[in-house]
Amino acid sequence: MDLVRLLAPRDPALDHLAREVCASRPDLRAAFGDADSLGFRQWLGVYGVLEYPRIAAHYPPLPPEHLRATVCGGATLASHLQTGAEDFRVLAELFEIYGGRPFDSVRSVLDFGCGCGRELRWMQSALPAASMYGADVRKAATDWCGQNLRGTFLANGILPPLDLPDDSIDFAYALSVWSHLSEEQGRVWMRELARVVRPDGLILVSTHGAFALALCARSAEHQQVLQIDAATARELLRELPNRHFVHRVLPATIRDSADGVAADYGQAFFDEIHARSAFADSTEFLGCVPCGLNLFQDFHALRPRRR
Ligand SMILES: C[S@@+](CC[C@H](N)C(=O)[O-])C[C@H]1O[C@@H](n2cnc3c(N)ncnc32)[C@H](O)[C@@H]1O
Question: Residue 192: CB within 6 Å of ligand 1?
Fold first, then answer.
């Protein structure tokens, strides 16, 4: 996979600008080498966008703070862009591993629970010929995406369906969405993704697992992020090997700030045994990558079962 080519829009004017900026910045040359290095291409889409309006003009607009606040990636624009780039790279790499074909052969992408497009902004330039779809219960987020990103954006209900035909998507992913859904909602939404993804396509979902709980048990910062105290985290960590899925509903004040989500929206933690069995009616389990997302959430790779 040619990540250097995938990480920036293919645009001769941007290439020219990138060389000019690199030539004028010894600090960047010392950090990354030349303008065609992987590090520099990523810098362009993160700090290049923030520091140079001329570079930003080649990338999609930046989402407002109130939309960034309810997705992953942290509070700042830099962390939103940087984590989006890192997560995009992991998605592309896992697609090749579990999808079994080159990432740039993908012709249609669905970001389920897309928020304000933290990954889609990278996907849309990496795959310029592919159809992009994003879906989210939060209409304010899909409205913003529809006005600022390339693709079709669907404000879905709390329960399926998605307004997409059967077998219409090559690659569907959901970052930090199954980490919040109740057991039953996770099951019905997986059936829906299996319906819209082609039988030779790929589904990747991230979720909290044992490692996230262990971190939460000892880190005040993670307790704050997950809204789970240390004693509860330890209790859930002990329960997980027997129950394989545990879930705590979030306080109403937090649920209300993520407007549109289900009344039982919370923090879900599950393991590979759950991913293998709970979704077995609609998917074939391909693999699990513990801590594969930002050294915090686990990835599960699944393929729709033939109907
Ligand atoms: C933690 S955020 C992650 C957002 C985005 N995937 C990212 O990585 O930045 C969870 C997202 O899932 C969305 N969501 C929650 N329940 C959903 C559902 N039933 N259908 C679609 N989206 C949902 C939320 O509105 C929110 O945008």
Answer: no
Residues 90-137 pLDDT 10s:
999 999 999 999 999 999 999 999 999 999 999 999 999 999 999 999
Spatial contact of 181 and 145, defined as CB atoms under 8 Å apart:
no
Cα(6) to ligand 1 centroid in Å equals: 25
Ligand 1 pocket member 118 (CB < 6 A): yes
What SS3 class is residue 173? strand
Structural domains in the chain plus CATH codes: 11-56 (no CATH), 65-209+256-304 (3.40.50.150)
Q: Copy the structure tokens of residue 222.
A: 């993670």
The tens digit of pLDDT for each residue in 218-227 reads 999 999 888 8
**Minimum-distance ligand 1 atom for the alpha carbon of 189:** 19
Q: Which residues of 163-185 are buried (b: 16+ CB within 10 A; e: fewer)?
A: ebeeebbbbbbbbbbbbbbbbeb
Beta bridge partners of 104: none
Query: Distance between CA atoms of 64 and 80, rounded to whole angstroms?
Result: 11
